[in-house]
Amino acid sequence: MAPDTNTEHLLKQEAWLLRDKYDGVHSKAFEIDKDRLRQGEPLAYIIGWAPFLDTKIWLDSLPLIPRAETEFWVGEAIKEMREHANGSAVRVLDLCAGSGCIGVSVLKTIPNARVDFAEIQEELHPNILKNIRMNEIDESRVRIFGGDLFSEIPDTEQYNFILTNPPYIDPALNRTGESVRKFEPHNALYGGVAGFEIIERIIRELPDRLRRSGTCYLEHEPEQEGLTAECASKNSLVSKTFPDQYGIQRYTKITHKNMAE
Description:
Distance between the termini: 54 Å
CATH architecture of the largest domain: 3-Layer(aba) Sandwich
Structural class: alpha/beta
Largest sheet: 7 strands, mixed
Number of strands: 9
Helix content: 25-40%
């Protein structure tokens, strides 16, 4: 008889919950949380935080839970930042910041980085600030903006790196699992028609927001690779898409044409 993978997965999650939230001590509260797991609530919300690169990301306001795929490409972006920095300041924007996991990991890893966070849901801003403080980052290196995408960022502000995991899921593909649909914020997941409406708006504004030598890292669906390349070209930008750790075309690097290799 084949093993019940759902049962095995649940038992692993219960073990992680016991270890990470209750220090291995069984209690009535642990039993209550086990019931929450059985009802499909994400483990990260129950524990209250998730690891992301070298940081611990708190999820008090129930933002989008950081994904391993995002962690992968942010790690690649940080490698490029190290090469770019060479002792000089690096200006970074975490766009559609959510929990702030992307920008916080940059701040934690790149000492000379200054990071702006842009997140339309202002109720998430205290969560971003908590993650900055809990990861022992100097708040003078940080600014947090509300508004729709770039709307509250000063018009003259340009960045060496723009890192973004925008809402990009195409509702027609219906790939999201029941737990994601039930518990995670829909406005952080779904990107409108073909999942591409917000991505298109971001790319349109990149020429004015990226420094001439700047790079945007943009996460998206594999099916959106062609749309992303077409949109970048229409806006006098160059794009190249890369696979994540699972071999899926997951993120695109976008630069000004004169900086293309």
